[in-house]
Amino acid sequence: MANKLVIPQRPLPYFDPRKVPIVGVDNHLPAIHADLLQPSALKQRFAQPPVWHPELVAEKRFSDKALTPASVLIPIVMRDRPTVLLTERTLHLSNHSGQIAFPGGKADGDDLDTTVTALREAYEEVGLHAKYIHVLGELPHYSTGSGFVITPVVGLVETGFTLTRNPFEVADTFEVPLDFLMNPANHRRHIVEWDGEKREWLSMPYEDQLTQRFIWGATAGILRNFYRMLLS
User: Fold this and answer.
1) Count of domains in the chain?
2) Residue at 183 is within a domain
3) In a domain, 51, yes or no
4) How is 21-51 classified by DSSP, letter by letter?
5) Residue 65: helix, strand or coil by DSSP?
6) Average model confidence (pLDDT) for the chain?
7) 89 inside domain
8) Residue 93 pairs with which residues in a beta bridge?
9) Beta-strand pair 206-208/68-77
10) Where is 77: in which H helix or E strand?
């Protein structure tokens, strides 16, 4: 049998997402009212979820590796103005290095379910103990271009916790007001062409004490789906 010529998929080249042009801002969409972002309203929404459809479910693959199940925690800190706790990944990691992310990671064989994975990873990455977290429910799966199938687990986080980040995985932690993230006037659209295809994503840049946090990719996509759920 003649040898078959196999052309491997080219890896997605490095690019700075901050420099990719903005093609649109979604300020024509309504913001979620502040009352709907309070803990009692969020509990009610998950207790009686609406009929809705996620806007973003899968990125175009740029990896041939097998799909890997993973979970992330969307930690909503119950401050007077609720916030979302996010991490900045260290630069040396093999996947999504330097990006803004939720606490989370790959499922382990010992994990009983996706919630266990999210809570375990949150503790391992940033030292957020499960005793401070009230899990509300899950959002639909989100598949990344790198081959992870992510289950986002939404949880309310009581104040009074302390964080101890894993310095190998997490360079920094910070909080962003939930109402900022749930306002599409802060959602920007980007497009880049690679290998004859267009790749699109959202970004939600946030300035945190003179440090600009560039939230984009899977993190922004999952937050956009959360917005769609709350809007429904």
Assistant:
1) 1
2) no
3) yes
4) PEEEE-TTSPPPPGGGGSHHHHHHHHHSPPP
5) coil
6) 88
7) yes
8) none
9) unpaired
10) strand 68-77
> The domain that contains 106 carries what CATH number?
3.90.79.10
pLDDT tens track for 58-73: 887 777 778 899 999 9
Q: In angstroms, rounded to a whole number, what is the distance separating the alpha carbons of residues 87 and 128? A: 12
Burial 156-183 (b: 16+ CB within 10 A, else e): bbeeebeeebeeebbbebbbbbbbbbbb
Structure confidence at residue 9 (pLDDT): 41
Find out whether 56 and 142 touch, Cβ atoms under 8 Å: yes
* Cα gap 215→88, rounded to integer Å: 10
Residue 162 structural domain: 34-178+215-231
Q: Which long-range contacts (CB under 8 A, 24 or more apart) does 18-24 make?
A: 18/214, 20/190, 20/191, 20/192, 21/190, 21/191, 22/188, 22/189, 22/190, 23/189, 23/190, 23/191, 24/188, 24/189
Q: What is the pTM of this model?
A: 0.90
Tell me if 168 is assigned to some domain: yes
**Per-block mean pLDDT, blocks of 10 residues, the chain (232 long):** 35 68 95 97 97 92 82 98 94 58 92 95 97 98 90 98 92 96 97 77 90 93 98 95
